[in-house]
From TrEMBL:
Pathway where this protein functions: Carbohydrate metabolism; galactose metabolism
GO biological process: galactose catabolic process via UDP-galactose, Leloir pathway
Keywords annotated in UniProt: Carbohydrate metabolism, Galactose metabolism, Metal-binding, Nucleotidyltransferase, Transferase, Zinc
Protein name per the record: Galactose-1-phosphate uridylyltransferase
Record: active site: H141
Cofactor note: Binds 1 zinc ion per subunit.
Domain of life: Bacteria
Length: 326
C-alpha cells in the first residue's frame, strides 16, 4: 500500500510505493513507441499518467496510533510520464530546437495543470537516463511528480536562499551565476537567457547546471524568447555530455522550481530562481561512480575531479559537438 512515513530524524517523508514491484520489464517491445497499441499512433511530445505511480489522489494513509512517533500520511499527489519524441532512439540533442520548445511548453502546461491540485506542494520535473540510474525503458522520456510535501533537498536549497537573502538582500542563485561568469573557469556555454556551468562545489564530475540569468520561479514565468534559449542550451549541454565519452552518458536531470501553495515560502520570488541540475553517474568512460559510505551514510559527497578540470573536458566536448552539428 502506497503511503508516506515521517522520518523525525531528518524531518521529511519516505515514500512507500509497494506497487512499484509490479512494474513490467519490456525486453523486446517498447510501450512508448507508436504502434505498440498502448499509446496514440502519432505524437510529437506526449504526457501520460504513470501506470505505477508513487503518488496518486487514490492513495490513503494507513490507520496509526496518535501517540506514536511512527507517523504516516497519504501519498496524495500526481505522477506523469512525458514522452520526448516518437523516435525510440532519439536524444534531446537529436531533436530540432522547435521540437524541444514543444517539450518545454508541455512541461510548463502539465505543471500548470498539476498546480490546480491544492494538496500538491512541489512539482518536480526529472529524467532518469540509462540503466545505471534506474531507467527501465530506453525510449526518450522523463517524469513529473507532484508531491504533497517539499522534498528535503529542495527545502534545504530554499532555506539557504532565504537565509542569504535576509542577510544580504541578494538572490543566492543569481549571485552564483554572476561569480561563475566573472570567473569563467567553469562556464561551458551561455546565451541571452541562460548559463551552463559546472559549479565550484559540484558533487559530480560533469555535474553541469543550467541556470536562468533572470529571477524566475517557474517554467510558466519564461517568455517565448526564453523558452527558445532554454531549448538551445538543453540541446547544447546534452550533446556535449554525450561527446565526452562518445557514447550516451547516463544521468539524472532535475528541474528545480519554486514550491506551490506554500505559506512558508510564499515570498520565494525574492530569493529563489529556477535552475536545472545534471547528475551524471560515470567517473570515466567505463566506470560508474557509486555512492558509498560517505555519500549514503553521511550525505558527504565526494567528487573525484575538480570542477575546473571537469569544465575543461566538457567545453572541449561541447566544441566537438558543435563542429559535428554544422
Amino acid at each position: 500500500m502506497n503511503h508516506l512515513r515521517w522520518n523525525p530524524l531528518l524531518k521529511t517523508y519516505t515514500l512507500i510505493a509497494t506497487n512499484r514491484t509490479e512494474r513490467p520489464i519490456f525486453p523486446d517491445e517498447c510501450p512508448f513507441c507508436p504502434g505498440s497499441g498502448k499509446i496514440k499512433e502519432t505524437y510529437d511530445v506526449l504526457s501520460l499518467p504513470n501506470e505505477f505511480p508513487v503518488l496518486s489522489p487514490k492513495f490513503n494513509a494507513p490507520i496509526q496510533e496518535t501517540e506514536s512517533l511512527f507517523k504516516s500520511g497519504s501519498s496524495n499527489g500526481q505522477c506523469e510520464v512525458i514522452l520526448y519524441s516518437p523516435d525510440h532512439f532519439a536524444t534531446l540533442y537529436d531533436l530540432e530546437n522547435q521540437h524541444i520548445e514543444k517539450l518545454i511548453k508541455l512541461w510548463r502546461d502539465r505543471c500548470n495543470e498539476m498546480s490546480k491540485d491544492h494538496s500538491i506542494r512541489y512539482i518536480h520535473i526529472f529524467e532518469n537516463r540509462g540503466q545505471e540510474v534506474g531507467s527501465s525503458i530506453h525510449h526518450p522520456h522523463g517524469q513529473i511528480y507532484g508531491y504533497p510535501f517539499i522534498p528535503l533537498k529542495l527545502k534545504t536549497e530554499l532555506d539557504s536562499c532565504k537565509e542569504h537573502f535576509l542577510q544580504t538582500n541578494k538572490n543566492l542563485i543569481l549571485e552564483l551565476n554572476e561569480q561563475e561568469e566573472r570567473d569563467q573557469k567553469r562556464i561551458i556555454t551561455s546565451n541571452n537567457s541562460f548559463l551552463a556551468y559546472i559549479p565550484y562545489f559540484s558533487e559530480h564530475p560533469l555535474g553541469v547546471f543550467i541556470s536562468s540569468r533572470r529571477q524566475k520561479n517557474f517554467l510558466a514565468d519564461f517568455t517565448n524568447e526564453e523558452i527558445t534559449d532554454l531549448a538551445t542550451i538543453l540541446k547544447d549541454v546534452t550533446g556535449a555530455l554525450d561527446a565526452v565519452y562518445k557514447k550516451p552518458l547516463p544521468y539524472t536531470m532535475s528541474i528545480h522550481q519554486a514550491p506551490i501553495h506554500s505559506k512558508e515560502y510564499s515570498d520565494c520570488k525574492n530569493y529563489y530562481s529556477l535552475h536545472i541540475e545534471f547528475s551524471p553517474v560515470l567517473k570515466d568512460a567505463s566506470n560508474v561512480k557509486f555512492h558509498g559510505g560517505s555519500e549514503m551514510g553521511a550525505w558527504a559527497n565526494i567528487s573525484s575531479q575538480l570542477a575546473e578540470e571537469s569544465a575543461k573536458v566538457l567545453r572541449d566536448a561541447f566544441r566537438i559537438f558543435k563542429k559535428a552539428e554544422r
